[in-house]
Structures are given as C-alpha cells and as structure tokens.
Amino acid sequence: MTQEPGSYPVDGTLQDQVRYLADVAGRAPSAHNAQPWECRLIGSELHIGRHDAYALDASDPTGRQTALSLAMYVEAFVVAAHRWGIRARVTRTAQVPGDRTTAVLALTGCAPAGDSPVYRAISDRHTDRGPYAPLAAPAWLDSGGPAASGADTRLFPITDRDAVARIGGLAGSGLGTALSLLPMRRELAGLVHWHGEPATRGMAVEALFPGTERRDMPAAEWFREHADAEEAAASVRDVYATAPGLVVVVATRADDPTAWCDAGRAAYRLLLRAAADGLAHDIQAGPVEIPALAAGLAAELEHGWRPQILLRIGRPLGPRLSGRSVRRAVAVD
Ligand SMILES: Cc1cc2nc3c(=O)[nH]c(=O)nc-3n(C[C@H](O)[C@H](O)[C@H](O)COP(=O)(O)O)c2cc1C
Fold first, then answer.
1. In testing the pocket of ligand 1, which one of 30, 185, 282, 327 has its CB within 8 Å of the most ligand atoms?
2. Which of 13, 118, 221, 308 is most exposed, with the fewest beta carbons within 10 Å of its own?
C-alpha cells in the first residue's frame, strides 16, 4: 500500500511538519526498497538513522547500501523541507559504530522555496529496469549543475559504447551472483511481492524482472524456485549493450561511511534532476559490492576513484507498470 501524505500542516507544530516531511522523503529509493530509515526529533534537530528491523544482512554486509539509501532519504528530506520553509542543515553524516544515527539535521525557518519540478520529482521519480532510448549527457551533469560533484565525490558519465558494454557485463555478473548465492536469494525472496499486492516494502517481481507475468503462487515462492540467475544476468547485459540510455558512475576518493553518504546525496540530486526532466533510472549495486567487479568498474574511471553507485538514466522504451513502488509510513519519535 503506497503511503500518501495529506496536505502540509502549515500551522502545525514542528513535530507535525516533520512527520509530513518524513513521509514525503520516504519516497526516496533504497536498496531492495527496504526503507532502512528511522527519524527522531530532538528539539529542533532531526536525527535520521538506520532502523535495525530493516537491515540487509546478506546483501549488505558492510552497510554501504544502507548508508547510500539513508543518504538519499536525508537529501529528500532537505529538498522537501526547503519547499515548505524549513532549512534542514546537515551537520553530521556517517555511521559511528554503535550509534544508529547517520545524519543530524538542524532545522530552522526559511522562506519556502515553493513548488518546483525537482520537488515534485521526490514523489514522481521511479526505477525502470528496462531498455532506454539513447541519451546524451545533459548539460546539468557538468560540475556546477544541480548534481554538482564535490572535490571528493564525482559523477562519471560513461559515453564510450565499449566501456558501457563492459560495465553491462559487470552488472549482469553482479545480478547473476546475487541470485545464485543462497543467503542473498533468501533475503531477496522475503522482499518481493506481485505487482498490486498489498505490501509496504520490497519490490514487485514484475518490476524486478521486466516481462515476467504474475503466476498463481506466492511471489516469494516464485522467486525462490523460478528466478533464473543466468537469464536475469543476460537480460541486464543485453540492456547495457543495446539500449542503456546514459550510464553514470558516482565515485568517491575515500571508501568509508562518510564517503557513502556523500555519494548517496550526490546520486539522489542527480536522480531528482533527471526525474524533473521526465527521465527514469536504474541502479545496480552488484558491481559496487562484489570486490572483483568493483575493481573492474574502477578501471573504467580515472585512477584513484572508488565506484559507489552505478546507474543508468533515460527515457524507457517500453510501457512502465501502472502505480508506484510501495512504501511504509515513517514514524517520527
Ligand atoms: C543504494 C541502492 C542500491 C540499489 N541497488 C539495486 C540493484 O542492485 N538492482 C536493482 O534492480 N535495483 C536497485 N536499486 C533500486 C531499488 O530497488 C529501488 O529504488 C526500490 O525498489 C524502490 O523503487 P523505486 O526506485 O521505483 O521507488 C537500488 C537502490 C538504491 C538506493
């Protein structure tokens, strides 16, 4: 069931307003749509952190995917708050062992930025794992644009076709590996449903494997018994080789929780800007998480950069599933 916030409580308390914004930000993407965030409002500080009930033990042993997802949530909150007249200044990011807080946001009043295509993109952006029409790197990808790279975080558009095909090989291997390893397959099976089934987290099988038709069995059972690792890997390779749209790698100098947060925020700004232009996107975590594949992906970048997110953006060639991916309501303690 998709959670829809009502209308913004202009005259409400800060707690009411933060509750509203916490739900809007909940449209941010996350690995496996696990939505690993939790929020605590302490005075005028919002602490955003990892919800232990939403850990991905098998697919995210280092916590990188969770940190990237949390960073996207943080950035979504910042953009949404500004639209309604709250400045959310991120005073701390990164995960300290033993502390579940990933980011602290200091909230103060400001002039509302008002409605904008980028604000609306928080709700409208979506993943589409199918083929995309060709797309040249948009001008806003340059440094200085809305997706601006920092000194330690950089967006690398990959325009060479052979490089894109090689990266597609890595992405295919990543998905094939994830589906072949039993603990990951089990974890993923617990996070799938059929499109339109009531759910608050996880992914529709039909969205995960474009072209799959609903079968008369629970989605988890279909996934465990019938998801074909080789076929899925081949289909990812094929999309990258034939109709990838624009491939972008978000990379950092360092490889620690602070860098993961920076990469997640930069990637999300890119996704929002792209969505404001009507573009969909697709993220592949395998080539970042699996060390041998990550080395292959790094080899496509300038020396000294560690890939953190591999994504494609573009205009889907096929029809998309009607309806958005599911979300849970976000509690603010
Ligand atoms: C850090 C991160 C890693 C992701 N990794 C993958 C991936 O490896 N494969 C994939 O198909 N989708 C991946 N996704 C996309 C999520 O599955 C998707 O965002 C989520 O299911 C919610 O759907 P939506 O983006 O349409 O709202 C990733 C997303 C994030 C934020």
1. 30
2. 13
DSSP string, 80-93: HHHHHTEEEEEEEE
Residue 1 has what pLDDT?
44
On whether the CB atoms of residues 152 and 260 are closer than 8 A, the answer is no
Global pTM value:
0.96
| Ligand 1 center from residue 5 Cα (angstroms) | 22
Q: Which CATH class is domain 153-314?
A: alpha beta
Angle at 146 between CA 27 and CA 315, to 5 degrees: 60
User: Does ligand 1 come within 6 angstroms of the Cβ of 101?
Assistant: no
Q: Which CATH class is domain 14-124?
A: alpha beta
Distance in angstroms (rounded) separating the CA atoms of residues 326 and 233: 25
**155 CA to middle of ligand 1, Å?**
18
Rounded Cα distance, 312 and 203, in Å? 19
Contact present, 246 and 232 (Cβ < 8 Å): no
Task: Give me Rg for the CA atoms of the chain.
Answer: 19
Q: Which helix (H) or strand (E) holds 103?
A: strand 101-109
Max CA-CA distance within the chain? Answer: 56
Distances (CA, A) of 47 to 26, 90, 279: 15, 10, 31
Asked if the domains 14-124 and 153-314 are classified in one and the same CATH topology, the answer is yes
Question: What's the confidence (pLDDT) of residue 150?
Answer: 64
